[in-house]
């Protein structure tokens, strides 16, 4: 699969693409300049209302149960889905007097199914959608503004706090993010045995874009691996630090117009004209010419995880988080190190709102749908069921308090297992999987607290006015991205050609629109 600079929801998961416009329901957002003011007012109101005895939702067990339609991601179609459905329904009926229609979707069917469901107004209460479609969903009338229903999600409001701001487009609250990492840190996943054998340590690497010589240590490591294992691919896949160069800026939702200096600037620039991006591309070029990457790095369809698992690849670049090494070990079969290649991590609106849970306009009872979401956000049993399956059948709690396979069950015969906590409402209330530290959720909280907040945090760009230009720029970008990221072409010629193609496709128009919306937003914060 071709990997582009990942300023889209595909950075983390499969996401729905923008949907074709249809009739407007009359419910739409206002100017983006008001978003943080609306967020602060709404959160404050919800917190005060949440303390009232008359606020919130109290189940009425004497009425007919409401059926809530909840769409969520799964890794694959699984034989244990029916058992999970039954267990979730039993739990929700007991605690909420609600039935639950779990609409499990895999990445392969996600885009088409979500588009068709929303466009045809099929039964839907809550669904998981990407930020690139916020404007389309609002204008098409597919979603409801969460703001009138905040009193029914008091636990969500309290837990997310200021992070709710990232879910606004104008004064329209599109959705709620999940409990996960709040920033993207580029990193190198590499085989521990080889690193140790060659006398290196993760502590040797203190990589920072503010000290370009710090990348020399990576080059030294790659040279040593190449010398010791001349037949091994040193850097697998098609990703490099240049691929994740956008993490050194605030991309504001897409690749076309960013805030430089880890989001500490307020001027929209073309990141692909910066010295930082050129440096990272030139670094990739040096590595490519030194033979550390495969000759087909720009076009390979093999992910680094697959190549490392096959045994003839040292490592790959990706985005890392507190338990990245544990995830990589399960994917590759090798003990690995996760080495950061940036010492600063940005907390941006996009990092928080890349995908959110939305309230469908098709919901027959949005109050009950909201109440269900608040319950789902706080229920350990629900989180464990949709992530790990039925306790005692698909998983058990081990001595460390972590989820693990029961005796006789493993990845080859388990009936239900997702490990998609990042895409569910609140994985922090559920069990982490064995291999993680028992305090992994506290590690996530510490990581999130260490992030550098972009000056534009709380601003969400509405791409609707420049949809055509974005599509044209994506097409132009696709012609050059991986060639430049992997150093497979001359950098001077490639950068010049790509930037010319982007401007011809309408890049300046996109940047001007971003700057206009952002300036309005900043003005509202000062008012």
Outline of this structure?
Helices cover about 40% and strands about 15% of the residues. With about 525 residues, it is of the alpha+beta class.
- N/C terminus separation: 46 Å
Structural class: alpha+beta
Number of strands: 18
What does the radius of gyration come to? 23 Å
The first-level CATH class name of one domain: Alpha Beta
Helix count equals: 19
- Any idea what the CATH architecture of one domain is? 3-Layer(aba) Sandwich
What proportion of the residues form beta strands (DSSP E)?
5-15%
> How is the biggest beta sheet arranged?
4 strands, antiparallel
Q: The CATH topology of one domain is what?
A: D-Maltodextrin-Binding Protein, domain 2
- Kindly report the name of the CATH homologous superfamily of one domain: Periplasmic binding protein-like II
Q: Overall mean pLDDT score? A: 89
Gross geometry: globular
**Could you name the ranges where pLDDT drops below 50 across 5 or more consecutive residues?**
1-38, 41-55
User: Helical proportion?
Assistant: 25-40%
Explain what this protein looks like in three dimensions.
The protein is an alpha+beta fold. The chain has a domain at about 30-185 and about 350-460: 3-Layer(aba) Sandwich (D-Maltodextrin-Binding Protein, domain 2). α2 packs antiparallel against α14 (about 380-390). It is built from 19 helices and 18 strands. Strands 3, 4, 7 and 15 form a four-stranded antiparallel beta sheet that branches. Strands 9-12-8-13 form a four-stranded mixed beta sheet, sandwiched between helices.
